[in-house]
Design brief:
With 257 residues, chain A is mainly alpha-helical. Helix content of chain A is 67%, strand content 8%. Chain A has a 3-stranded antiparallel β-sheet, covered by helices on one side. The radius of gyration of chain B is 20 Å and the shape is elongated. Classes of the chains: A mainly alpha (257), B mainly alpha (167). Chains A and B meet through α3, α5, α9 and α10 of A and α1, α4, α5, α6 and α7 of B.
Chain lengths: 257, 167
């Protein structure tokens, strides 16, 4: 590290590190990965850092080795939903910083590029998640009629969720609306006796909402010793699961009375 | 016939994994790997269930296999392991048991008859326990390979080699 001149301003380095960390946490990386990545980037830039990572805020202190100066700042993390393209891109970026001595300006450009990367087209998402719903139905022993019902219900539910997210409803409410729509459609099919085992379609139509990332990251965090973050993630997953249950319950109440 | 059923179920498990991969916006180059992993995890889980390992242990085996291979895949395809492992284990999430447990809980709030109450209580607790343990085994199955290889891989990784050259 002696070849690197510590010209770059600690302040801009700190801001870029906080930005990276916030993007990682909101895109679904585990606490350990976030810490490792930030430390790697900071090391590549020639700084030592201390970090406090929570689910909704990030605190960072930069220590310059030779001087007594330090830089400390807090950044709020706004949840954006899981985006593995960003997680993957930042992983590349951190290695580039370490091995190819990227400057802060280059990191900022790359972060901007990662943020502007497109999502898959909406129709593709709807179609493939619908297929996933049908696949779940098949896994739990449904026939082709039930699979078709699960497909339609999943597509409708996901559509409602996307629309609810767009007008910025509370995230748990979005899940509730989606679960309600999906199970209402699957329940209507059950009501009119579509297929032989209609309850399979009813149960699997909401599985696209399962909080897989919060729950698995929760176990990972707990096992890494990040107990606090793990508990927060588990609670978040439970809240989502509860919203799904309430959506199902509401649809059942309407259909079977 | 059983073999055919297992293979077709694995195929659909892969499809379900792809659906979640798209939902999580994974890079395009890893989609096929995720299908392979999801199908492989399903294959192991359903085969283990055929040999009466029980659904909890079968899920654990499937998730562990996914966790181990996702580390290899991460090196091959240049993406972090969780990008592969999380979408691939989601088809094994015990949604049907969660649904049964939830219905049971709602029924428990309204049943008055003692015998029916006891019967529902037993089924609800059974479904809930299965769901909980499957979830835990999935989480541990995915996390364990990463935790086990961490020590070794940090020693061997380029990160450390480069540091030695630079220092």
């Amino acid at each position: 590290m002696k070849t690197k001149t510590l010209k770059e301003d600690a302040q801009s380095a700190g801001n870029i590190l906080l930005e990276t960390g916030a993007m990682l946490m909101s895109s679904g990386a585990s606490t350990h990965r976030t810490r490792l990545t930030l430390e790697r980037i900071a090391h590549g830039l020639g700084y030592g850092i201390e970090l406090l990572i929570t689910q909704r805020a990030l605190m960072l202190t930069i220590i310059e080795k030779d001087q007594q100066h330090f830089f400390s700042r807090l950044k709020r993390i706004s949840p954006h939903g899981v985006n593995f393209r960003i997680v993957s891109g930042i992983s590349h970026l951190s290695w580039n910083v370490l091995e190819e001595n990227w400057t802060i300006a280059q990191i900022a450009d790359e972060l901007k590029r990662l943020k502007s990367l497109p999502h898959y087209p909406r129709l593709v998402v709807l179609g493939l998640v619908g297929l996933a719903g049908a696949a779940f139905c098949r896994l739990f022993g449904g026939g082709y009629t039930e699979m078709a019902v699960a497909f339609v219900a999943t597509v409708a539910g996901l559509f409602i969720r996307q629309e609810a997210m767009r007008v910025k409803f509370n995230p748990y409410l979005c899940v509730f609306f989606a679960a309600f729509t999906a199970s209402l459609i699957a329940g209507l099919a059950e009501h009119f006796h579509f297929g032989t085992e209609p309850d399979k379609a009813f149960a699997t139509s909401v599985l696209f909402l399962v909080p897989g990332v919060p729950l698995i990251n929760s176990v990972t965090d707990l096992m890494d010793g990040n107990i606090q973050n793990g508990m927060v993630r588990a609670m978040n997953g439970l809240m989502i699961a509860f919203s799904i249950a309430m959506g199902l319950y509401a649809a059942k109440m309407i259909l079977f009375f | 016939m059983i073999l055919l059923d297992i293979i077709s179920k694995s195929f659909w498990a892969g499809i379900a994994a792809i659906g979640f991969a798209i939902l999580f916006n994974v890079p395009r180059r890893v989609i096929f790997s995720i299908w392979t992993l999801g199908a492989l995890g399903g294959l192991i889980k359903f085969t283990a269930m055929q040999f009466e390992f029980g659904i909890v242990f079968a899920s654990f085996l499937g998730a562990t296999a996914i966790g181990v291979i996702s580390i290899k895949m991460a090196h091959m395809r240049n993406s972090p392991p969780l990008v592969f492992s999380i979408p691939s284990v989601i088809p094994m999430v015990p949604g049907f048991f969660a649904y049964k447990m939830m219905l049971g809980l709602i029924a428990l709030a309204s049943i008055e008859n003692t015998d029916a109450y006891l019967q529902t209580l037993i089924e609800t607790v059974n479904n809930g326990a299965k769901m909980l343990f499957i979830l835990i085994s999935l989480g541990i199955g995915v996390a364990l390979p990463m935790l086990l290889t961490r020590k070794e891989s940090i020693k061997k990784s380029q990160f450390n080699k480069k540091k030695k050259i630079a220092v």
